[in-house]
Recover the amino acids of this structure.
């Protein structure tokens, strides 16, 4: 079958047309025919093999792709909750289910976490074999392509829940108008925020954010002042999400929040930086939180209900559909005019590849 494989700790990847399909399943495993897999910034890090990618400790060789949907074709022995024919989206964080955090119900931050497409073969392939626990059965009304966005959209839902704010009637500031920031814009609107502002350098992404009713501004030295004035009646924003991880983004956010507000860090900065704790955390009284992955399965159920009810329109985030052979183009698109780029195995590239 065709597959995108990372073979070793250097930049690049292999596009294979003769990747062997494993014939038999171990107990607890599920064979999924991939419908779509979306490409994300982590994949770009993996292709370039940046220090952030190296820190994941990949298990080479590994098929990439961790934002995946498909149809179950076969189940191994002892599989209980998934059946042949089920349409599933895959959770990319595979928890051990036995460590302290897993036993506390915090499997999204498992001590022995394995990641799909990094430590286990992922979904940039025609089919993949995953543990049953990776499968979330989609509601009938949710198209498979939309299911491929659940993993990343779930990051936004989890960040909202982590904030402790339900956003209704609140001023919401979002740094980064990528796919996660854009889902947060939709969530803020769905829950009735009074004001949503997105700080984003890319004009294409700003246009999308504006389409969903957000005001937008480019990052820069005046961004924090502009934001604070925009919510001057309450002294700043009530809640902020840094979905970018970009240098200076969190600092802008903290300056634009009101006293006693909450900031949630979602995007991964490439390096450590310093923060003025006295000013922001102590005197300003901010609550600073991080959000990693999705809670199992509260985030997924809430997301599925929001999508099924039409309050969240993830399909509008799909900007391109490419073949597996065009993976390199898909990665390049991430820094251009794109929101979510899907690799669709049934789409064939130039010359039928
Ligand atoms: Zn991702
Ligand atoms: Zn665990």
């Amino acid at each position: 079958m065709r597959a995108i494989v990372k073979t070793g700790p250097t930049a690049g990847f292999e596009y294979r047309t003769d990747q062997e399909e494993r014939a038999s399943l171990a107990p607890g495993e599920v064979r999924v025919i991939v419908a779509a897999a979306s490409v994300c910034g982590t994949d770009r890090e993996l292709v370039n093999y940046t220090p952030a990618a190296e820190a994941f400790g990949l298990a080479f060789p590994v098929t990439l792709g961790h934002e995946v949907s498909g149809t179950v074709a076969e189940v191994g022995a002892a599989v209980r909750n998934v059946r042949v024919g089920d349409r599933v989206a895959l959770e990319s964080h595979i928890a051990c289910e036995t460590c302290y955090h897993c036993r506390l119900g915090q499997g999204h931050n498992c001590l022995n976490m394995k990641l799909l497409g990094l430590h286990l073969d992922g979904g940039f392939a025609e089919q993949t074999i995953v543990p049953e626990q990776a499968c979330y059965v989609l509601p009938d009304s949710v198209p498979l392509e939309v299911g491929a966005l659940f993993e990343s959209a779930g990051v936004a839902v989890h960040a909202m829940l982590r904030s402790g704010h339900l956003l209704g009637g609140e001023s919401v500031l979002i740094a980064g108008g990528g796919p996660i920031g854009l889902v947060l814009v939709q969530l803020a609107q769905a829950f009735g925020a009074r004001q949503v502002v997105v700080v984003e350098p890319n004009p294409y992404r700003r246009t999308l954010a504006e389409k969903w009713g957000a005001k937008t501004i480019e990052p820069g030295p005046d961004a924090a002042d502009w934001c604070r004035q925009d919510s001057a009646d309450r002294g700043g924003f009530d809640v902020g999400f840094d979905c970018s991880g970009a240098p200076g983004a969190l600092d802008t956010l903290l300056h634009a929040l009101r006293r006693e507000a909450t900031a949630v860090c979602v995007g991964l900065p490439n390096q450590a930086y310093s923060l003025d704790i006295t000013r922001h955390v102590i005197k300003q009284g901010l609550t600073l939180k991080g959000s990693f992955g999705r809670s199992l399965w509260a985030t997924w159920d809430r997301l599925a209900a929001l999508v099924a009810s039409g309050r969240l329109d993830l399909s509008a985030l799909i900007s391109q559909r490419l073949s597996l052979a065009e993976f390199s183009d898909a990665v390049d698109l991430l820094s251009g005019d794109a929101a979510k780029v899907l690799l669709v195995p049934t789409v064939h590239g130039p010359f039928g590849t």
